[in-house]
Amino acid sequence: MNEELQNPSDVAQKRRQEAIERINKDLKSVHDAPYNTGDQSSGTGVLTKSESSVGSPGYIAADGTYVPNQVALKTRIANCLLSLGMVAYGFWGIRRDDLIVPIAKRTASHFHSISAWIMYAAMLCASVHLAGVVMDHYDRRNNEHLYQRLGELSRKIGWVMFGIAFIVGLTHHQLEFR
User: Fold this and answer.
1) How many independent structural domains does the chain possess?
2) How many CB atoms are located within 10 Å of the residue 79 CB?
């Protein structure tokens, strides 16, 4: 029978089942980590894949239970240390009124006054972006899309603040290159 003549819900169900089979086939051929294959206790396969920015994406198993994403311990530790390090380094630079940002191998920019505060805000955005990955790992609810949106927003705002800090530093003669 022709697909156009069938019930639309039957066609959608058939396409959904084909997509599930393709995903399960791809996962078996790649031999991903065990948490990427759905609910291990029931032996069911993967139904759908939710969006995620980092790590293994979360899945909804065939029995309807949500299997959250996983981020490697090494990545979580690195993100936490980088995030805390950026906040501390930026605070130290603000206290001295000389925030030094390395640009190239032997070149750094020194930000002073208002441009230092704007650069510190950019560093805080980068810190939020890194911490969001760790928070997403520990949040077991199906809301990876919120963390992905947080990451995109903090990244965009951070880059804008980075550019504004350079412009303000150059226009107010508060930026030194050494």
Assistant:
1) 2
2) 21
